[in-house]
Amino acid sequence: MNIKDILISEENTMIEAMRLLDRAAKKVLFVVRGEKLIASITDGDLRRWILKKGNLHALVKDIANYQPKYLFEKDKRKAKEYMRKMSIEALPIVDEDKKIVSVIF
């Protein structure tokens, strides 16, 4: 899988995020500004938004988690342990500029 397949802009709509999640067949997208990781958005985030607000025209920036979990490249070997501890299914690995260089599932 190409990393770009699971990246989205915070200016995209929630419907676009849902389409991208469906196309990528993953449960999470990573929100980037420029090339930097700034947030994550999951299928659960979208479902909760629909149930709470019902607004299908919302933007990703209204729904995303701006405290995403990630590891720096130098800590990549700790990824599986970190993922178990945090109960997450996907973990972006970033460089010192917070550009996503890989994702561990």
What does this structure look like?
This protein is α/β, with parallel strands linked by helices and 105 residues long. The protein is built from four helices and six strands. It starts with 6 loop residues before the first strand and ends with a strand.
What's the layout of helices and strands?
Layout: E1 7-9, H1 14-24, E2 28-33, E3 36-42, H2 43-52, H3 60-63, E4 71-72, H4 79-86, E5 91-94, E6 100-104
Parallel strand pairs: 1-2, 4-5
Antiparallel strand pairs: 2-3, 5-6
Task: Tell me the fraction of residues in β-strands, as a range.
Answer: 25-35%
Which parts are unreliable, with pLDDT below 50 for 5 consecutive residues or more? none
Please estimate the helix content.
25-40%
Q: What structural class is derived from the secondary structure elements?
A: alpha/beta
Radius of gyration: 13 Å
Number of strands: 6
Task: Provide a concise account of the structure shown.
By secondary structure, this protein is of the alpha/beta class. It contains four helices and six strands, in the order E-H-E-E-H-H-E-H-E-E.
Key traits:
105 residues, alpha/beta, three-stranded mixed sheet, 4 helices, 31% helix, 26% strand
